[in-house]
Design a protein that fits this description.
The protein is of the alpha+beta class. The protein contains one helix and ten strands, in the order αββββββββββ. The strands form three sheets. It has a four-stranded mixed sheet, with no helix packed on it. Strands 6-5-8-9 form a four-stranded antiparallel sheet, with no helix packed on it. The protein starts with a helix and ends with a strand.
């Protein structure tokens, strides 16, 4: 090959290389522009309200939510419970009998008639309405959990038809060897059902001791009026008699 032909061949190859480099640069620029345009389109698609969107849509007006009131209702399983009705128990009060008293009078003549005093009536109480009976028992008869060391005075209150009377006041006072009941002990009938519906009980707090009418029990109504005499009790130190049972019975 001649030197002239060799130079032409080199010149053609140099121009071809320059042309290929320019195309490569344009290809890269076009590719980057395509990627940028795709990014802008994707950004506008993801957020139409973006600042780069030349034609943003109108801003939507949020809907107005009107609050509603939901009434509170009880659970479906809720069932009202009936209210118990308390029944009052009538308490007999002391009765009194009006007895006439003799009043002297003077016979007068028609000419000297004067006013004559009429007979007067005096109110006299017939006594308290409840009598008493007393019995002795081994305390385990009514209190199986008790022992010989317990000393009890208990009982019940009955009306004239043997119905139990609940809510009367029972008091115990006096003294025993080693024990004084001052102030007096107080309880109500009907709070110790071991002795019946109107049962009551006093635990004396000492072992059984022998005494003669040094302690007493008495029945009262709710106003404090006595319903029985003050009953003095004789006690025993025998374990078989460590429960004194007093029954108040309306006459």
């Amino acid at each position: 090959m001649s030197p002239t032909a060799s130079k032409k061949s080199k010149s053609v190859r140099g121009k071809k290389r320059n042309s290929d480099g320019l195309y490569n640069i344009l290809t890269i620029v076009f590719l980057l522009a395509t990627i940028g345009i795709c990014g802008v389109v994707f950004s506008i698609f993801a957020n139409p309200y973006s600042a780069i969107n030349p034609f943003p849509p109108n801003t939507p007006i949020p809907p107005t939510i009107t609050p509603t009131i939901t009434p509170l209702m009880p659970d479906a399983t809720w069932t009202p419970e009936p209210t118990p009705i308390l029944t009052e128990t009538s308490t007999p009060r002391p009765t009194f009998t009006i007895e006439p008293t003799n009043t002297s009078f003077v016979m007068v003549t028609p000419s000297t008639a004067t006013n004559t005093a009429s007979p007067t009536r005096t109110v006299r109480p017939t006594g308290v309405p409840y009598g008493t009976t007393v019995q002795f028992f081994d305390s385990t008869t009514f209190r199986p959990e008790s022992s010989c060391g317990d000393f009890l005075v208990a009982g019940q209150a009955l009306d004239s038809k043997n119905n139990h009377v609940i809510g009367l006041i029972v008091k115990l006072g006096g003294s025993l060897p080693g024990k004084s009941f001052n102030p007096v002990l107080t309880t109500l009938t009907g709070i110790v059902p071991a002795y019946g519906q109107s049962g009551f009980e006093f635990a004396l707090g000492i072992p059984p001791v022998t005494s003669t009418k040094t302690i007493w029990v008495q029945l009262f109504d709710q106003s404090g009026a006595p319903l029985s005499e003050q009953l003095y009790l004789t006690t025993s130190g025998d374990c078989n008699k460590n429960l004194i049972l007093v029954r108040f019975k309306q006459r």
